Amino acid sequence: MKSVKIIFALVAILAFGIAYAVEPASATHFLHQFAMAGGAGASLMFVGDTTGDVLKAIEASNKAFEEFKKTNDARIEKMEKGQHVPDDMQAKMNAVFKDMSDQKAIIETLEAKLKRPLLGGDGKPVDEQAEEHKKAFSGYLRKGIEYSKDIEQKALNIGAGADGGFAVPKVIDGMIDELAVNISPIRSIAQVQQISTSDFHKLINVRGTSSGWVGETAARPATNTPQLVDIAPPMGELYANPQATQQMLDDVFFNAEQWLAGEIATEFARAEGAAHCAGTGVNQPKGIFSYASAATADATRTFGTIEHVATGVSGGFKVLTSTVNPVDDLFSLVSKMKALYRPGSRWLTNKAVLFTIMAMKDYQGRYVFSPTTAPGMADTVLGYPVTEAEDVPALAASSLSLAFGNFKLAYLIVDRIGTRVIRDPFSNKPNIGFYTTKRTGGSLLNSEAVKVIKFI
Questions:
Q1: What residues contact residue 247 under an 8 Å CB cut-off, 6+ apart?
Q2: Residue-wise pLDDT tens digits, 370-412
Q3: pLDDT recorded at residue 366
Q4: By C-alpha distance, which of 383, 331, 381 is closest to 355?
Q5: Is residue 25 helix, strand or coil?
Q6: Using 50, 70 and 90 to split pLDDT, how confident is the model at 110?
Q7: pTM for the full model?
């Protein structure tokens, strides 16, 4: 029932965002009426209570983008006439862009709260072994009461492990994963697979098996065999050490499991963000932007090497003139992606590069960037959604700072089943630490499903 409520609430907000773009007054009335409907309960009351905040955020974001376009149009006009562009004009655009980002974050926070999973108390039937494990783990968190490893082995169906600590129950582990998806940009767009061993391999059919047409009685000559590539994502141990006081843990109204999941998810997501973008592959995932790139096409390029489009300008896009438009490189990047991979593709970049793209127009004078204020809907560039990740390499000479790809096909994240916790009441008195570890990895899966711009 909780999931149904959450879905109803999300539908309400999405419908409100779309309706507001058409008729603000009607949209606000709709959301109030929807929140008053009986079927959605507390989740919809949350929607009703936050109507004013959502409305203000959407209004502010729309106004900010209009102001941005107005200032940028004046800037472009001066550039085309060969006139000097005042520094304060660029500063104003920077300020407006920050305001847009802030308002977008407010709306996304609303959605994240609705998606936050809850533990227990929902009347659903539960797995007895999983429930026993959860109760035992709760006692370990609050009081340090250790329990038999047989309990977690039955609940998780995994070995107890020789590294000490206790396995996090499945319901809490699932909460960590859900929260991490909301926080970590790459995890939310990549392919994620759970594994039970650190020695994981995935075979990729690179070129496929040849075939041919023959007559009914014609000979069937042998065809080429498949070319297989063995993908073994580099793995490392990810850790976090959230701290709590015993007084917090003794408070009956303090949800220790929810607190632990939130703390771990935040720390894990922060570390993952850097590794999945620029990780070295040594005791950590190998990041998307750490792979070699070349200007050669898919048919001739070595598998595992990403195709790039060079801007021709060191550390930046082409300069707009009457005959040159920097948006050409964006069109070129999209055109090089195979039609098979294009549906589901998106842009991946950092805030600084995105800001530069926001000011670009196509040859018909239309902005290639389109902001979206509806929760759960990403901003778009050339009609494709944008994922912003601050760990994407900064714009510099020869940097790879902008990618376009179908990351569900291009990048694989592997998580070894079983997050472990060691309760430590001694190292940082009076605080109690929860040293939490998990093995995870990541690697490029299909180098044809992602393209990058090289600023050189």
A1: none
A2: 998 776 789 999 999 999 999 999 999 999 999 999 999 999 9
A3: 95
A4: 381
A5: helix
A6: low
A7: 0.74
Contact 419, 436 (CB under 8 A): yes
From residue 208, alpha-carbon distances to 196, 205, 225 in Å are: 29, 6, 8
Q: Taking each helix axis from N to C terminus, what angle separates 41-49 and 24-36, rounded to the nearest 10 degrees?
A: 150
Residue 160 has pLDDT above 60, yes or no: no
Give the residue from 227, 254, 224, 4 showing the smallest Cα distance to 138: 254
- Could you tell me how far CA 404 lies from the centroid of its own chain? 14
Nearest to 236 by CA among 189, 287, 300: 287
Contacts of 4 (CB under 8 A, 6+ apart): none
Encode pLDDT of 221-254 as tens digits. 777 666 788 899 999 999 999 999 999 998 878 8
Are the C-beta atoms of residues 444 and 291 closer than 8 Å to each other?
A: yes
Which two tokens mark 36? 């008053």
Q: Is the peptide bond before 430 cis (omega within 30 degrees of 0)?
A: yes
DSSP 379-428: -EETTEEEEE-TTSPPS-TT-EEEEEE-HHHHEEEEEES--EEEEESSTT
Instruction: Give the whole-angstrom CA distance, residue 412 versus residue 152.
Output: 28
